[in-house]
Design goal:
about 160 residues, 7 helices, Rossmann fold, two-stranded antiparallel sheet
Length: about 160
């Protein structure tokens, strides 16, 4: 992860305590950190093993228009890759995400054409659940809706 222009590798996945909680940090938290330095307490907490969702990585890369931003994203990606902590959605996660999205449309009135980012949020949430991790986000609306049809651990921050 980044701090003062340097990549700071956090816990080594081979030596992390099994008692440490796992977290997957949502895209909006990284964006606030990149842009204004917010949420360092979340990003650099020592009592949690952080994983970078491949979906979050995709969203960060898609929004990194400036060279500086692309370099920041690359450094974050490299740090997580070295630690072996990039979380890929499995076939089962994709299948369950399809079921969750169908239920959200049927029960809660979501329209994927106008709420397309909820597809990514479902993949992030269900991938995190697959490793017993908590999703840390500022996007309460989408994640609470997903949680209502498929429970997972969630921490909403300001």
């Amino acid at each position: 992860m980044l701090h003062s222009g340097k990549v700071r590798a956090k816990e080594n996945s081979k030596s992390s305590s099994p008692d440490m909680r796992r977290v997957v940090i949502d895209t909006n938290v990284y964006i606030d950190w990149f842009n204004v330095g917010r949420h360092e307490d979340v990003l650099f907490q020592r009592d949690a093993v952080k994983h970078l969702s491949a979906v979050v990585l995709m969203e960060l890369r898609a929004g990194a228009f400036a060279l500086r931003d692309r370099r920041l994203v690359q450094r974050v990606e490299s740090a997580f890759a070295r630690a072996g902590r990039i979380l890929l959605p499995s076939r089962l996660v994709f299948a369950e995400a399809g079921d969750v999205l169908r239920r959200l449309q049927a029960r809660r009135g979501f329209h994927l054409a106008t709420s397309h980012s909820i597809v990514n949020d479902a993949l992030i949430a269900l991938s995190a659940r697959s490793i017993g991790a908590t999703v840390v986000t500022q996007n309460e609306g989408h994640y609470r809706a997903i949680q209502a049809v498929s429970p997972f651990q969630l921490l909403v921050i300001d």
